[in-house]
Amino acid sequence: MSDRSPDPPRLERWDRRMEAPLAVASVAYLAGYAVRILAHSHLSDGWLDVILVVTLTSWALFVVDYAVRLRLSGLGPLRFLRTHLLDTVVVILPLLRPVRMVSIYNQIQRRHDEPRLGLYARVMVYSGLTVALLGFAGALTVYHYEADAPGASILTFGDAVWWTCATLATVGYGDMVPVTPMGRVVAVGVMACGLALLGAVTGSFSSWLIQSFRREDEKDEGTRNGGRPPGNSPGAS
Amino acid sequence: MSDRSPDPPRLERWDRRMEAPLAVASVAYLAGYAVRILAHSHLSDGWLDVILVVTLTSWALFVVDYAVRLRLSGLGPLRFLRTHLLDTVVVILPLLRPVRMVSIYNQIQRRHDEPRLGLYARVMVYSGLTVALLGFAGALTVYHYEADAPGASILTFGDAVWWTCATLATVGYGDMVPVTPMGRVVAVGVMACGLALLGAVTGSFSSWLIQSFRREDEKDEGTRNGGRPPGNSPGAS
Amino acid sequence: MSDRSPDPPRLERWDRRMEAPLAVASVAYLAGYAVRILAHSHLSDGWLDVILVVTLTSWALFVVDYAVRLRLSGLGPLRFLRTHLLDTVVVILPLLRPVRMVSIYNQIQRRHDEPRLGLYARVMVYSGLTVALLGFAGALTVYHYEADAPGASILTFGDAVWWTCATLATVGYGDMVPVTPMGRVVAVGVMACGLALLGAVTGSFSSWLIQSFRREDEKDEGTRNGGRPPGNSPGAS
Amino acid sequence: MSDRSPDPPRLERWDRRMEAPLAVASVAYLAGYAVRILAHSHLSDGWLDVILVVTLTSWALFVVDYAVRLRLSGLGPLRFLRTHLLDTVVVILPLLRPVRMVSIYNQIQRRHDEPRLGLYARVMVYSGLTVALLGFAGALTVYHYEADAPGASILTFGDAVWWTCATLATVGYGDMVPVTPMGRVVAVGVMACGLALLGAVTGSFSSWLIQSFRREDEKDEGTRNGGRPPGNSPGAS
Q: InterPro entries attached here (chains A, B, C, D) (predicted)?
């Protein structure tokens, strides 16, 4: 019936033991990627090699973790892929690893029986964080391809961040545009993410706002009808 | 159960007594901010100092009001912050103070048992007013940073307002763009507000439109079925 | 209970008698407005005066119709304004008069007991038609203010239509932008309409699409369960 | 009651027999259209004629298939048009034929009683595929009209694809814009499709995301309440 059976105990133990190393690896990966692109000309070849090794080691750790979890889950590869979609995306795009932090924060709150974020707030935080990380990676990559291209208008990393913000918001001033084929391919990816994920953020925000106003109405009704707590009304979820 | 317990009576008395002074302070703050930026070169240093004092006094009043209400509410700072989110935002961004007017208008209507605005209409009015005020503040601030910058295209306050409208609507012609780092930071803020709040306005407008058409259908049904008033049908909220 | 009581019989008779004259007047108004702007330099002063008289007469007819209906309805002005919002808007912006055609088409279909358009389809048709008419009027007005302005990029009516489409879709290439203050004010109006009404169109289209897919599912279920007609299932509205 | 009665057996037989030829014809049509535009100057007149014949034969096959199905369905033309909207659109715009593949894939899955895509996933796949195909056709057509126009900025097919992506996402940088009347007419069509269909994609994505988060909540609840499978809860559809 349920598509996601509870994880077996050995898998749970593995997850808990790997939490800290994976968090470190994800920060190392992101930092390594950023430093290689931004400080390329200021670093000696030795340092660049060190950073490359750090980046690849972090990635390898994600791959190993994924393989072990696939093994321990007792599911087939395809079924595991479908039920652990976010984990699979993280292996291919390790830049998104920090998104899992929100899920870990949620688990900690739940263990302590503390209230978690509301549904819409969680969708906003996840989608917003994903957009921010993908936007950061997109700005880095576009800057990498455009900075030295002839006729380019995106010349500094600051320009790339400004361009990314204008693109994600679908404002698109056009004062800066990628001119290289690879820069444009990354730009289309940034647009697609912007449309889909920021659409989720704004949609959730609208729903949350309307829900807040509706609850306030119910509170007012409750106060008038003799203080019946609004939390029991069926509309409040 | 309810996250927002009814306010204690002393807090309510304080709120009622502060309504008028805070409304005056918010108008003074907004006017002071606008005059300092727009009429900067036409005013003597003495007048500029007077306006600065007015602006800071207004802000101080907001901070004092917030502190007293936190004290009287009997809640901890974090809990108060969570249940009085709009008030907290107003202390940090006093430009948003006039948004509270809508809430005060609502309270007055309720006291007289007059009908309030519908749910979607209220979301539209709140979000639209917030966007208008933030857009006005954004245009002022962008004008402040851009007007004298070398290579700038936003040269007059009219230009800044036109640029803000094109940005909020995510049209982004690109005939005018901020070129200074601070101008761009403010621009990103304007984009974020535009996306989130105008998304709420258009979403509420769509919902309201669909609701209106549905009600008309129900009225027609009611007329045919012997004049049963549509107000009793479960779909109409 | 009901906010819209059924119209009294005399009002209904008036409405039916005025249908044809008002339709003619609305076409005359729109044509007069367009001809005055587009063929300004090709017409003699005599013809321009004739067209102006036609335009003003049409408008006067709308005002008279509104006044008579307000009188016959037996409601106060404010209450009539609230329950006949579209009619009021038409008096101020007679360019929107053709939007009422959809409502007349609906009434004719209903009299003959023929199926009307679905809820989402009607929202799409109304909003889409309103956007098309407002966009047409916006293109005319922007062309009127921009065509002869120094430094303008909108030089022909074709340019104005192309600019309006790019603005309504919030694409905003920026190859053409209004440069006069009045042109920009109209542009902001076009943006606001585009955001609100096209948001309603696309929102209704999405809802309609999802509804269609859901109905197909229910039909498949019905076929399997022995041909139970899907029209009776509660989800289909 | 049901607007779509089950298709008669002869029609079903026809559909099954035509599946393969129509799939071949749709690929042939799309390839022929693309080759004629992209390789125009590299092909001899003989080859161009061959390709034209292939394209027209494919189209003829769609028209014949539509006519036969209209005949076999036993419905009037107008009623058939309303209940087979997608088929009708395909006859006019054969570029959309591949969209029907998704529907065929669904039918095969159903015959084997395998799980189909979820509701939102199907809306996303259909709308996304339609946008991709219409965008491809739009880029081809705009390239066809713009490439040789004086003062054009869209010079290569790569430029046309980049322009189409920026337009569909409503980013609209303005570094490339169509300048010919026909190019602009196609551009307005691309904008309209982009708004409507990508709106459906992002709307479905948001709904799917919120649904996923809600299900996770329910799973957690289920685990706590003694492992009740979440599939039975009423909210999960």
A: K_chnl_dom, K_chnl_Slo-like
Cα separation, B110 vs B106, in Å, equals 6
Query: How many angstroms away from the CA of A56 is the closest CA of chain C?
Result: 40
- In angstroms, the CA A209 to CA C132 distance is 31
> Which chains does chain A touch, 3 or more C-beta pairs < 8 A?
B, C, D
- The H or E element containing residue A202 is helix A199-224
Average pLDDT over residues D45-51: 87
Question: How would residue A223 be classed by pLDDT, with cut points 50, 70 and 90?
Answer: low
If we measure between CA atoms, which residue out of B155, D41, A127, A173 comes closest to residue C175? A173
Cβ(A209)–Cβ(B99) under 8 Å? no
Mark out chain D residues that contact chain C at CB-CB < 8 A: 1-4, 6, 110, 119-120, 122-123, 126-127, 167, 170-174, 177, 181, 184, 187-188, 191-192, 194-196, 199-200, 203-204, 207
Asked if C55 contacts C32 with a C-beta cutoff of 8 angstroms, the reply is yes
Question: Do A204 and A124 meet the contact criterion of CB atoms below 8 Å apart?
Answer: yes
Contact D217 A119 (CB under 8 A): yes
Closest Cα in chain B to D203:
B203
Report whether pLDDT(B234) > 80.
Answer: no
Q: Quick check: helix, strand or coil at residue B237?
A: coil
CA–CA gap between residue C184 and residue B93 (Å, rounded)? 29
Write out chain B residues lying below 8 Å of C191, CB-based: 165-166, 169, 171
pLDDT by residue, tens only, chain C of 237 residues: 334 445 567 887 887 788 778 878 888 888 888 888 888 778 888 888 888 898 889 888 888 888 888 888 877 777 877 777 767 777 777 766 666 666 666 666 666 665 556 788 888 888 888 888 889 989 999 999 998 899 899 999 999 999 999 999 999 999 999 999 999 999 998 998 888 888 888 888 888 888 877 877 776 666 555 444 433 333 333
Rg (CA), chain C: 22
Compare D81 and C144 and report the one with higher pLDDT: C144
Of D170, D175, D219, the CB nearest to A174: D175
Residue D210's nearest CA partner among B43, C180, A169, A197 is A197
Q: Which residues of C touch B (CB under 8 A)?
A: 1-4, 6, 110, 119-120, 122-123, 126-127, 167, 170-174, 177, 181, 184, 187-188, 191-192, 194-196, 199-200, 203-204, 207
Which residues are CB-neighbours of A220 under 8 A, at least 6 positions away?
Answer: B110
The predicted complex's ipTM stands at 0.77
Give the tens place of pLDDT for each residue, A134-143. Answer: 899 899 999 9
How far, CA to CA in Å, does A80 sit from each of A62, A90, C60, D118? 16, 14, 71, 18
d(CA A117, CA A98): 18
Q: How far is CA D127 from the centre of its chain?
A: 7
Cα dihedral C164/C167/C173/C179 (nearest 10): 70
B partners (3+ CB pairs within 8 A) are A, C, D
Q: Both tokens of residue C100?
A: 């009422």
Measure D200 CA to nearest chain A CA, in Å. 11
Can you tell me which residue has the tokens 């587009």?
C38
Read off the tokens for A53: 């090794």
Q: What distance lies between CA B160 and its chain's CA centroid? A: 19
pLDDT at B145: 92
Q: How many Cβ atoms from other residues are within 10 Å of residue A77's Cβ?
A: 9
3-state DSSP assignment of residue C98: coil
A203·B204 Cβ contact <8 A? no
Helices D9-38, D99-111: inter-axial angle, 10-degree rounding: 140
Contacts of C49 (CB under 8 A, 6+ apart): none
